[in-house]
Specification:
Strand content: under 5%
Distance between the termini: 27 Å
Structural class: mainly alpha
Helix content: over 70%
Number of helices: 9
Shape: flat
Radius of gyration: 20 Å
């Protein structure tokens, strides 16, 4: 696909996402907003596949795997959406957000171990500095979103107590975990992305931080937390 046409299509998809969020802000326009979001995502995926196919980087096997993932994932999503009650929407959204965070982590892992495939290699066996920062932040935010959303789901769904669980010295714990993330990301940048142990450290610490941030919040405030995690998943 022509680069200019692809850029225009991505712009249209972005506008559709913005209109989708606007539509979802009101019950009267939520269906229209949902439709715009689905059309925007479908357009973005289609343009990406056509661009890859035109450049010769998408073979039949890869295309079949992508199509299979869309069919399986879409089928599961449709089945869940058809069965869930409207009163269960907050926990359903929390569950879906956890998957978005996990997907961001998996993409970051793939990019770190195969930078050439993502076009971020620096040509010397390492990864470009800006890409290392992006991947590390994506991993951290994605992991926080994952565990935070799982806990939000469990509290909303009654799988764990909705009462705040206050850890001793929780603020110091969160500050310590945050500083450890900054240190490990710095090590990743300094090693040009080759210190994969630091990358996995970011993943593990962010998983813990996602839990320690959400556990102290009561179940009644979980809808607000889910909205916050929605913004996190967008950044991831």
């Amino acid at each position: 696909m022509n680069a200019s046409l692809a850029a225009l299509a991505y712009l249209v998809a972005g506008v559709l996402f913005i209109l989708s969020l606007r539509g979802l802000s009101s019950p009267e326009t939520s269906r229209q907003g949902n439709t715009m979001g689905m059309v925007g995502m479908g357009l973005a995926v289609l343009v990406t596949l056509l661009t890859l196919w035109g450049s010769g980087t998408l073979d039949l096997l890869t295309a079949a795997l992508i199509l299979g993932g869309v069919v399986v994932g879409g089928g599961v999503g449709a089945l869940i959406a058809a069965r869930v009650q409207m009163t269960q929407m907050p926990q359903l959204v929390a569950a879906f957000h956890s998957l978005v965070g996990l997907a961001a982590c998996l993409v970051a892992i793939g990019a770190v171990y195969a930078p050439e495939g993502f076009g971020i290699s620096d040509g010397t066996g390492g990864i470009k500095a800006l890409s290392v920062i992006e991947l590390s932040l994506g991993m951290a935010i994605g992991a926080i979103t994952f565990t935070g959303s799982v806990i939000a789901f469990a509290k909303l769904n009654g799988n764990m107590s909705g009462a705040p669980i206050l850890l001793p010295a929780r603020h110091l714990i969160n500050i310590g975990l945050g500083l450890a993330l900054v240190l490990l990301i710095g090590i990743m940048v300094g090693s040009d992305g080759t210190a994969t142990w630091a990358f996995w450290g970011v993943f593990l610490i962010a998983l813990v931080l996602g839990a320690t941030l959400i556990i102290p919040i009561g179940g009644a405030d979980m809808p607000v937390v889910v909205s916050m995690l929605n913004s996190y998943s967008g950044w991831a």
